[in-house]
Amino acid sequence: MRQIWQQNDTGPPLEATLLGPDRRPINLVGKSVEFHMTPFDSEVRKVEAAATVVTAEGRVQYQPTAADTDTIGIFRGSFRVWDDESDISYPNASYFLVEVTDDI
Question: Structure pTM?
Answer without folding.
Answer: 0.92
